[in-house]
Amino acid sequence: MAAAQPDERPGSGSRGQSGTVAVVIPTRCRPDKLSSCLESLAAARRRLHFPVYVCDSSPTEEDRAAVREVCDRYDWVTFETHQGRNVSAARNFCTAVAQEDLLVNIDDDLELQPDAIDRIVARYEEGSGRRVVSGSVSWGTHWTTPVKTRAIGYGRPPLEGESPDFITGAFFLYPRTLGLALPWNDRIVTSDDIFIGALWRHHRVQMLFAPDARAYHPDLPTSFDDSRMADAARDQRWHIYVLLFDALFANPNLRKFVSYETLGFLASAKFFLRRPRWLIPFLQSWIVGHLRLFVDRRHLRQLVRKELPDDAA
Fold first, then answer.
1. Mind listing the pLDDT tens digit of every residue in the chain (313 residues)?
2. In the chain, where are the structural domains located?
């Protein structure tokens, strides 16, 4: 591996107006996808010589070696391993190991446009106060935007003048101090972006959008096979968990609570009624989500009541 140049050594960070910048990439057992992601970042580093932290949770030494081999091709990549069980745990680990002021989280299966990092950092520097910024990710012919939660518990793009309820978790920028002060909830497996959005809103963190900071998602599933249906039914527990966290703990709203429990339930049930084999697993998962919320209630209240330090911006 070639020696790093003095201004590009891993961990030094590139300095923008608001501080140093780094990219963090949670990954697990996907060296081929990671390779494409890092190659796109090589082009993106032409102006901002940011370091990249790859945080790998691959379960076996063979898998970890394959990921490390990809990282070793680039002298600006730092390879770290952890035992986190889900995306939230991976993001918390990335926040802990990176040392720069601003962290750009990127999913390992994305390919960034060359100016994507420049543009998302520029959007952050246009703002003030506590804030995060999302980029836009291709999903087929659709480009993602921030999301407003509907009464049925599913999202839509915000209308003009509306503040979003959460941002897409695949490509976003956040201050490290904020990530340390408000960690992701590693007790949930999915819907982590909706959860952290509710928590950010409670603490008055602005969710900004850089539509010209773009990343491609080249491999998209085209159908719901049995494995995806099993995941969809199981993940309903986290779907209702995070919605009720928002309506009961983070941003209490009786109307939203009633809507999620009635209209939200019917909207989800309608999907699974069309696939009767998965109706019972869906119902079981919905019940489990309520039970998990009850078990976690003290932890959730602590997150909501936490006082943020002045530098968490």
1. 333 333 343 445 666 667 899 999 999 999 999 999 999 999 999 888 999 999 999 999 999 999 999 999 999 999 999 999 999 999 999 999 999 999 999 999 999 999 999 999 999 999 999 999 999 999 888 999 999 999 999 999 999 999 999 998 999 999 999 999 999 999 999 999 999 999 999 999 999 999 999 999 987 665 666 778 999 999 999 999 999 999 999 999 999 999 999 999 999 999 999 889 999 999 999 999 999 999 999 999 999 999 988 776 6
2. 9-216, 226-305
Q: Strand 77-81 to strand 102-106: parallel, antiparallel, or no bridges (unpaired)?
A: unpaired
Query: Is the distance from CB of 53 to CB of 94 less than 8 angstroms?
Result: yes
Question: How far is residue 172's CA from residue 57's CA, in Å, rounded to a whole number?
Answer: 21
Contact 181, 312 (CB under 8 A): yes
- Domain 9-216: give its CATH code: 3.90.550.60
What residues are paired with 102 via a beta bridge? 21, 175
Q: Which residue, 54, 160, 71, 39, is CA-closest to 106?
A: 54
Nearest to 118 by CA among 133, 139, 137: 133
pLDDT one-digit tens code per residue, 51-100: 999 999 999 999 999 999 999 999 999 999 999 999 999 999 999 999 99
